Amino acid sequence: MAICRFRALISLSKCKFSSPFQSFRIRRFSSSQVPSLLENVGFIGLGNMGSRMANNLIKAGYRVSVYDVNSDVMRMFSQMGVTTKKTPYEVAEASDVVITMLPSSAHVIDVYTGPNGLLHGGKLLRPWLLIDSSTIDPQTSINLSATVANCIVKEKKGDWENPVKLDAPVSGSVIAAEAGTLTFMVGGSEEAFLSAKPLFLSMGKSAIYCGRAGSGSAAKICNNLAMAVSMLGVSEALALGQSLGVSASTLTKILNCSSGRCWSSDTYNPVPGVMEGVPSSRDYCGGFASKLMIKDLNLAAESAKEVGCKYPLTSQAQEMYTELCRVGHETKDFSCAFRHFYAGKDEPLDK
Hints:
Layout: H1 2-12, E1 40-44, H2 50-59, E2 63-67, H3 71-79, E3 83-84, H4 88-93, E4 97-100, H5 105-113, E5 124-125, E6 129-132, H6 138-149, E7 152-153, E8 164-167, E9 170-171, H7 174-179, E10 182-187, H8 190-203, E11 204-211, H9 215-243, H10 248-255, H11 263-266, H12 290-307, H13 312-329, H14 337-340
Parallel strand pairs: 1-2, 1-4, 2-3, 4-6, 5-7, 6-8, 10-11
Antiparallel strand pairs: 9-10
Helix pairs in contact: 9-12, 12-13
């Protein structure tokens, strides 16, 4: 998995947006504006999203130390003057706040509770705040928050005697992570959320408080469920329009000034040639992989089962994206359903 993530980082540099490593030494802001409770930040998980989020924290003036299982990515950060650590526990010991951005619930659990994990030192923790920005199931977020709350901060930080965990998954693509325009959906202590807001706004354009522990994770899987279904609906409509003699560019103009307008039509259009700067314009490279959409749809389906909600659209979307992955498109952006499921046609860019 680590090798795949490293290759993905390298391949991104071939797309129409910059590498996450290009500006580390170029734009650093003064650390004088960084709140003392937040100045030492550990970041664990330097994949396509995490590397860019860490970069933005560094540029904002935070003292950042990092860890990832991928030694090649760690070497890149080290060569650019960023402090690297050998284990998650070492990151915790150097940090006031630790942020994790990892692929799955299992990875998050391992980083928190595994050998040399964040909680390796037992009940005493150096950081007063742990933030998980991974997309995981709400119950895991709730369980880890309870575990962290039973610990004690080694050295009292402000009014914080016990450490706090926030679940803070993000909405936004790799491009948004690089531009610092992510949206954070945050669950946990509202007081901790308000204290951590400068961190979130160094990496994103907005941070929305969702409620108790696990509610950020719940909001994220609901958001991605809506995103998956709307993308399939827009793709189906545009492919049908082409078959009926209406170009996708024309139908997109209609959707975007009519009741069918949505993010999948006006911001992330799935038809190659209709919109510049989106994955469909670069052979569906560098966006949100179909295999990740499957993961999130699985989380939504499991959550729906647990609370007894119907989920027919989730189930249908699961089947469609599973088929896309089965035939070899698992690393392509999820908008590739237009081409590879509906057999939609490219169109010349309308300038």
